[in-house]
Amino acid sequence: EADAAPKSQSGFPDGFLWGTATAAYQVEGAVHEDGRGPSIWDTFSHLPGKIRDGSTGDVSVDHYHRYKEDVALMKALGATSYRFSIAWPRVFPDGTGTPNPKGLDFYDRLVDELLKAGIKPFATLYHWDLPQALQDRGGWQSRDTAQAFGAYAGYVANKLGDRVENFFTLNEMLTFVEHGHAAGVFAPGLTLPPQGVNQVRHHAVLAHGLGVQAMRASARRPIRIGPAENITIGIPAVETPENIRAAEIATREFNAPYLTVMLEGRYTDAYLAATGADAPKFTAEDLKIIASPVDFVGLNVYTPSFFVVATDAAPHYRALPLPSSYPHMASPWLTIGPEALYWAPRHAATLWNAKEIYITENGTSSADQLAEDGQIYDTDRIMYLRNYLTQLQRATAEGVPVRGYFLWSLLDNFEWADGYATRFGLVHVDYTTQKRTPKLSAAFYREVIARNAVA
Ligand code: GBH
């Protein structure tokens, strides 16, 4: 068999993990089953006008009932890992108090099925589906929610930690804070004033730290934990040493209330100066909790942010707006920047000395038109993945410690405020019949995994 791409030039390190990612509310459906309580996304998606196609996650792709078929799809890809999220309102229908054992049972079954297929499970504790009961008591505006997250995370680590070794705490604080609490376009749909938003940010990172501590304390064997953040990725528009330094400084500052405070244990001077009287209220003890040591850093990588050095004084960088002609994928926000998959992990290693990095999400939407033969020839998704993965390979070849990659997403699913019109899956789902059909990009990814190289 001819080898199109010699391994020496495009290979990934031995043992590199290849997987896909999903999130509970986006795939599970079964929202009233086995004692699950409502989440803020149930509430939000049922409000008129909030979801572009008027849809909800009530049924979605019915993964709750079809998980065995879905694990078989992963196995057919040759995937060695899988990142899923646990629905907090399945485990604690009221957010706190008495757990619902039947809710956790689903994840027990899923984990067993994955292990049987030789697929390493990575569980995310929070992918935006806050129990509605906690929202009714103030949600992320309340410090109590951070405490409740710690209790929930500790409970899950105790129950699943015997078979799940790797956990991510909260997925993309940046997104659920900014979109949910400032712009109001994601659940819970709030448009808080600046101090309120900063306080929500603080409670999110505090929840992460409390979660890390509670999970380590209650797991019955050592487990490994880290965040999964959608960072602003500073890219030197031209790779000179000065521009690279500017991009590093910008990356640290733009992520000040998220990854930077989690990994450094302090808010940057620039962040505190910029927020001024609207800065979050916090204690020195909070900062210690927030910076509880993690085992790895998870990065969701989609879009680029370009910088060059600024010759004048602070902040030493100049953010470059994208020209209106800049290309994007099927989603208008999804501007194409393959080099983001090189710079995001490199910055994590340079700025915060990250010793172990996972790409917790990367992938793209496509129009995904059905061809006459019923297949989907998503060559745009293949183009996107091939270019991004080439940049990831550059990072690993240079020694940046990336250990695995989770492609978003296994299946087409409920794309939040976009509903079902936007498809991110390697596998097409017919939302009427629930029939799964791997797209051409699934064949591409299978080839990447088989070769452990950009195919
Ligand atoms: C990730 O967010 C999420 O973790 C995942 O759940 C999601 O399905 C996936 O990416 C694909 O979107 O509608 O113009 O206001 C990536 C960051 C932030 C990108 C919110 C889309 C909304 C843009 N996302 N953003 S807009």
Automatic annotation (TrEMBL):
Recall the GO molecular function terms of this protein's record.
Answer: beta-glucosidase activity
Concerning Gene3D superfamilies, the annotation shows:
Glycosidases
UniProt keywords, alphabetically = Carbohydrate metabolism, Cellulose degradation, Glycosidase, Hydrolase, Polysaccharide degradation, Signal
Q: Which reaction does it catalyse?
A: Hydrolysis of terminal, non-reducing beta-D-glucosyl residues with release of beta-D-glucose
The reply to whether Hydrolase figures as a keyword in the UniProt entry is: yes
Family to which this protein belongs: Belongs to the glycosyl hydrolase 1 family.
- The protein's name: Beta-glucosidase
- What taxonomic ancestry is recorded? Bacteria, Pseudomonadati, Pseudomonadota, Alphaproteobacteria, Hyphomicrobiales
